[in-house]
Specification:
A seven-stranded mixed beta sheet has the order 2-8-7-6-5-3-4, with helices on both faces. It has a four-stranded antiparallel beta sheet with strand order 9-10-13-12, with helices on one face. It has twelve helices and 13 strands. The mean pLDDT is 93. The longest helix is centred in the C-terminal third of the chain and has 38 residues. By secondary structure, it is α/β, with parallel strands linked by helices. The N and C termini lie far apart (50 Å). The chain is globular and about 60 Å long. Helix 8 links the parallel strand 6 and strand 7.
Length: 375
């Protein structure tokens, strides 16, 4: 029987030699079985700690009965509702399989060998991974000291080959957000050959007065705004994201969008979530903000260094990659799963998602134990 080590390398693209596969957060069930821990909490993947809205659960159950037929390829009911709520023509809305799926669509449409994607780093790893897979170059500016995209440094990298300038805000894994005025000024200063993408996966967590990429789009700017139902709406397992862009860009992106990429159950859940958001979303966001404040206060009390975050996660710097690895392993032994941030460009850090109050308390207690054992 052939083993993995003895099999010849398949004739795949040479660019794959330079890429590492995306590593998702560890499944809680697998970690519990591997380590023999009965009760595991997962604070690793920035999922919302709450289930879908009741209306979404009802819609999912009803839609499941029709799963023998293909879904609406354009997700027209969901697209129309998004357009209505956002004050946009539905023709400026495109749905996709989470923001990751939409990143693939945008990169496929814009990037090729000889082109560039510019962004700041550390940040969301799917952007450089997809760009490199397309054969494009990735140029990276450092973040500001507070973990926010340094738009001045990013603008300095934009050149004649830069097709996409990506701004992730709030930034993953740091949690910091650019200001609205800075974002507008950055877009206005870009050359006509560069399209700005604003990755607003954590848009709902922004404080009052935070940026809104739609303002640029409504003013006629060439911009792609990306958002998701995975975080605040609690639909991470269904993979529903959307982007907002001028009609001309939507037409081009439609040429490379995968067919039937949002299943009918996911469409129904997202539509019901939108229609019931006014009854649930503000309360949910307030609870997450309170839990984040408790997490940050607890981390500060342990003498740990964190970056300011407006999102549903906090980045903690442990000084060295070796110490971050050791703390992560010790937390896993105690049934607490967090996210090593090395793949995001922050090897000495761990990212901790905001969970329920009891989960935050347990994570802090486990960290207290781990740090005490270090002394």
């Amino acid at each position: 029987m052939a083993t993995e080590q003895s099999e010849p390398r398949p004739p795949v693209r040479s660019v794959l030699d330079r890429l590492a596969a995306y590593q998702p957060g560890r499944p809680a069930e697998a970690d519990a079985a591997e380590r023999g821990v009965a009760d595991v909490i997962k604070l690793a993947s920035n999922e919302g700690p709450y289930p879908p809205f009741p209306e979404a659960l009802d819609a999912m159950a009803k839609a499941a009965a029709g799963a023998h037929t293909y879904p609406d390829a354009s997700a027209s009911a969901l697209r129309d509702e998004l357009g209505r709520r956002l004050g946009l023509d539905p023709g400026m809305v495109m749905l996709g399989s989470g923001i990751d799926g939409l990143i693939g669509t945008v990169v496929t449409a814009f990037l090729e060998p000889g082109a560039e994607l510019a962004m700041c780093w550390p940040s969301f790893v799917s952007w450089p991974l997809r760009a490199q897979l397309a054969g494009a170059a990735v140029v990276r500016a450092p973040l500001r000291d507070d973990g926010v995209f340094d738009l001045g440094a990013l603008r300095a990298l934009v050149g004649p080959r830069t097709r996409l300038a990506v701004v992730v805000s709030p930034n993953n894994p740091t949690g910091g957000a650019v200001s609205h005025d800075d974002l507008v000024a950055f877009h206005a200063d870009l050359p006509a050959t560069t399209t700005m993408v604003i990755d607003e996966a954590y848009f709902e967590f922004l404080p009052d007065g935070g940026h809104d990429g739609l303002d640029i789009l409504r003013d006629g700017g060439r911009v792609v705004v990306m958002r998701t139902f995975s975080k605040a709406f609690g639909l991470a397992g269904l993979r529903v994201g959307y982007l907002l862009a001028p009609h001309s860009l939507i037409a081009e992106l439609g040429k490379v969008r995968p067919a039937f990429d949002i299943n009918s159950v996911a469409q129904a859940a997202a539509l019901a979530s939108l229609r019931s958001a006014d009854a649930h979303l503000d309360e949910r966001l307030a609870e997450i903000a309170r839990a984040r404040e408790a997490l940050v206060a607890g981390l500060d009390g342990l003498g740990l260094q964190t970056l300011p975050s407006v999102a549903n996660f906090v980045l903690v710097d442990f000084g060295t990659e070796e110490r971050a690895r050791a703390v992560n392993e010790a937390l896993l032994d105690r049934g607490v799963i967090v996210r090593p941030a090395a793949a995001f460009g922050a090897p000495s850090s761990l990212r901790i998602s905001v969970g329920l109050e009891r989960e935050v308390e347990r994570a802090l207690a486990a960290l207290r134990e781990v740090l005490a054992a270090d002394d």
